[in-house]
Structure formats: C-alpha cells, structure tokens
Amino acid sequence: MTFQGILVLDFLGILLLLQVLNLVRRGRLYVGYGVIFVMSIVAAILIVSVPRALWLVTHLLGAVFPTSALTLAALGFIVFMLVYILTQLTIISNRLATVVQELAILRAAEESKNLPSEFDGGGVRKGN
Amino acid sequence: MSQDNERILIAIPAHNEESTIRQVVEGVRRALPEQDLLVVNDGSLDETGSILRTLGVYTTTHLCNLGYGRAIQTAIKYALRNRYDVLITLDADGQHQPEQIQSMLKRFGERKADCLVGSRYVESHNYGAAPLGRRLGMRVFSLLTQIATRKRIYDTTSGLKIMRRSVFEPLTQWHFVDFHAEAIVYLLRLGFEIGEHPITVSERTAGQSMYSAISHIIYPLKTALMIFLGAIQADLTRRKRRQ
After folding, report:
1. Cα A67-A72-A78 angle, rounded to 5 deg
2. Which of A79, B132, B217, B232 falls between 20 and 30 A from A9, CA-CA?
3. ipTM confidence
4. Could you tell me how many helices (H) and strands (E) chain B has, helices first?
5. Pair type for strands B86-89 and B59-62
6. Is B32 in Cβ contact with A104 (below 8 Å)?
7. How far is B76 from chain A, CA to nearest CA, in Å?
C-alpha cells in the first residue's frame, strides 16, 4: 500500500474513532457497541499502518493482494456486526413483548375492579 | 365433559376483527354460558376494542401488535396466573363454531390428553378443500411433525385447541411463531399427550387473514425451522430436567 493510501485510511479511521467516542460520550451509542467499534478501528489502523501486519493478514486469509484481504476482513466484520445487532434487536423485541403482555394483564385486572358483580373472582365475566 | 370442578377459560386472540368479533363473542356466550371468557385484543387499530367494551367482555389489550403467538401466550400467562385448569383457544374470525367445543371438551375429559386440537382433517385425511399452497403447506407441516415426533397430527395449523394446565408453563418458557406445528412438536417431544378431535370450520367471510403475500413464503420456512429447533429445545429441556 502506498504511503498516501496509509495516510488517507488512518485519517478516516481516526475520524471514525472520534465519532464513535463522541457518540458514546453523548449516550447515543451503548458503551458495549462502542468498545467493539473502538477495538475494530484500532486494529484496522494498525494493520493498515504496519506493512508486516498487513502482509501477515493477507497471508493468513489466503488473499493475493492486501486490498482483497482488507475487503474480506471488512465484509466479515459487517456480517458479524449485523448478526450481533439483530440479536440485540431480538432481545429488545422479546423484552418489549413481555412488558406489553404484563401491562395488558395488569390493566385488565385493574379495569375489572370497576366491572359489575357478574364478573367472577378472577376478574373474568361469566357468559350470558 | 371435562371434570365439573375444573376452572375453564376460553380465550380469543383478536387483531382487527371488527366485523366478526361480536358474532364470535356472542356465539361463545351462547354455547358455553358457564365458562369464563377472555379476549386478547392484539393491538387492533380498528373498532375491535370499542366493540369489546360494549359487549362487556373481559379484555387484555396489547398496546401494540405482537402477533398471534404472543396473543396466545398472553392468554396462557393469564390462565396460569389465575389458576385455570383448562384453556380453550379459538380464532376471532368466525371460522370456528363454538357449539363444537362442548363435544371437544367431553372428548378432552375422556382422553386425558394434555392438549386436544380441533382438526379439520383427522377424519378424512384429505386436504382437498384448501387452496393448493395451503394444502401443500399443511401436508408438509404434518409430515415434519411426524418425522420429529413419530406421531401424525393432521391439522397442525388449527387455532381451536384445548389445553390442560400441565402445558401452560412449558408454553410460556419458549418462543413460538404461531403456536402451531412447532408448539405441537415441542410438547410431544417433552412427553405430553396431544390428540385431535374432528371439527368443521366456516370460511372466513370478512376481515383480513393474518398471512400477507410475503408471509406465504416466509411463514412455511419459519415454521419448518421452528419445528426443527422446537424438537432440539424440547430435548435439551428434558435433559436439563433429568440432571
């Protein structure tokens, strides 16, 4: 990789790093996700900046050119993050569903207190 | 009939069923006047909620739409919490005939099954009346269920079910798509007894099916995956219990 290329990629990496840190500071990005991004960006900067590291990664991934190796690593990272984020979304969705279900049951019990006596002890109306 | 001292809850999950919910609730009240009735209003955006209020029916309302499976799960949680012995679920689209529940309950009491499914196909073994796609899907789900459990359940997608208290807890401890084939496989692999009772259904006359065009493709894949995972989960649960 040319010296100019390394400089551009490092500059972009540092900008992204600062942006991530700022988002974590402002509470817009959960610190757990922030750590993943910080570690990944630092690793990417190191791989790009140290020619021996880039050569090692290229060799390990079985790529011919360093750019191919970097693209493959980036794709792997994106897929990993996608699965991780969807996992988090599913967890949140399950938690939300549980809250909605609990709220529905509690609200129904509360509303049943105002219902006439034809409703039984469990709060359920007997059929006509 | 089920034992006289058993507390029975009838639960109807409803999502945007303004055109049929009144008829279904009144039908259930006429057919089973002694039983408690609960409607789970699953985030309906139409007039379902206000119709239920005018009917004075006990309703648990989801603030947003969680889907059929979660609505059934809310009913199960409610039944569990209020110490019901038996839970009957039926659809709010008017396809099920509440008059048939009496004979199902009788059979349920006699058979001592943990869950009895109201089945459209158990007698004829013929899916002929359904559209091709659905026919194929039901045959595949039934076969997958048989492969996973060595027991043939002909109607795995029926919403009319009678469940005993013994299955309430397991059904709240895992996640299901629609409480259909995957729930049946899960319960059978856990060692519960599931049977089928012949019923007839009316065709949906109004309202919207919960299956959209895209879900006709996704749903079978989701269910097939969940049948497979349900079998694994049941085995892991059994192993955990033994330890």
Report:
1. 125
2. A79
3. 0.82
4. 8, 7
5. unpaired
6. no
7. 11
Q: Say what the pTM is.
A: 0.82
Interchain contact A49–B (C-beta under 8 A): no
Q: Please, what sign has the CA dihedral across residues B132, B71, B106, B143? A: positive
Distance from CA of A127 to the nearest CA of B (A): 4
Domains of chain B, residue spans = 8-242
**B residues 181-240 near A, CB within 8 Å?**
none
Q: Fold for domain B8-242?
A: Spore Coat Polysaccharide Biosynthesis Protein SpsA; Chain A (3.90.550)
- Strand-pairing partners, residue B37, are B10
Rg of chain B over Cα atoms, rounded to whole angstroms, equals 17
Q: Is A103 on the interface with B (CB under 8 A)?
A: yes
Contact at CB, B62 and A101, closer than 8 angstroms: yes
pLDDT tens per residue, chain B (243 residues)?
555 678 999 999 999 999 999 999 999 999 999 899 999 999 999 999 999 999 989 999 999 999 999 999 999 999 999 999 999 999 999 999 999 999 999 999 887 799 999 999 888 877 776 777 778 888 899 999 999 999 999 999 899 999 999 999 999 988 888 888 999 999 999 999 999 999 988 876 666 666 566 677 788 888 899 999 999 999 999 988 888
- CB spacing of B62 vs A107 below 8 angstroms: no
